[in-house]
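BUG: 3D viewer hangs when loading the predicted structure for this chain

Environment: internal workstation, default settings.
Expected: structure renders.
Actual: progress bar stalls at 90%.

Input used:
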Amino acid sequence: MKKKIVSVVLAAAMAASLASCAETTTTTKDVYHVGICQLVQHEALDAATKGFRDALVERLGEGHVEFDEQNASGDSSTATIICQNLVAENCDLIMANATPALQAAVAATNTIPVLGTSVTEYGVALEIEGFNGTVGGNVSGTSDLPPLDEQANMVSELFPDSKTVGIIYCSAEPNSKYQSDKVQGYLEAAGKTVNVYTFADSNDISSVVGEACNNCDVLYIPTDNTAASCTEAINNVALPAGIPIVAGEEGIMKGCGVATLSIDYYGLGRTTGEMAADILTGKSDISTLPIAYYPNPVKKYNPAICEQLGITVPEGYVAAE
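Structure tokens produced before the viewer hung:
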């Protein structure tokens, strides 16, 4: 019940935030210098960064915000260097897109405001015991965590005869492990046998997916940045094997999956941009800002892969564009 109340409050806060997008905040500084560290280039993170930039420019006004946007190409060490450089530039705020980027930004500064986005679980990412929804200090942001119980339920809904489910994720991503553990519990409670497979990086992903396909009826891939960057390689193994994939987010689903309970990463980025505008203009204190969650995930399916696998999608799913 407590979780539901918190979700409703956060949903209302996000709705109010989005509703104010058209307003332009009167700036207290001529030009704000905002650094962006994005972990890797893929559809979901790109959309979040675009939403962040769009919302911040709309709120602060054209010419009142200057971005230094950099991409770490999937390398945590590069993210660390990027964030250290942004701190050296004395940015007014840093937006960290994805968990390793957030970790790098938090390690680089305890004074410059840091907003994360596309981060699944802040307590896990920042090793906060008893996390209550507010990081405190100079850190806040938005989470891309969907209702994991509902994602697990999709496996039974789409594949009622499935007995063994394989969960695949990158071992270097702690938020992926968090999702895997949660979904595994839900699936086992539903009577499924669950096998967990991890890969270290993109070099061994094909062999790991192949092993999973040989031993499972259906696969689940959480919101995992490395997997999102390797959907073609995953699809080249899973599709010929006839093994369907339920994905944690829409970008992975479009590349190799049949369905997902999807959040809107562009909308998530916009909410992060709204938070940034309020922080920069003194309207909000980042130390008291709770993490915000996307309120209305949507069940979506991949028409092309569903057709190739002969899967009939039940009512209530929307075809991904």
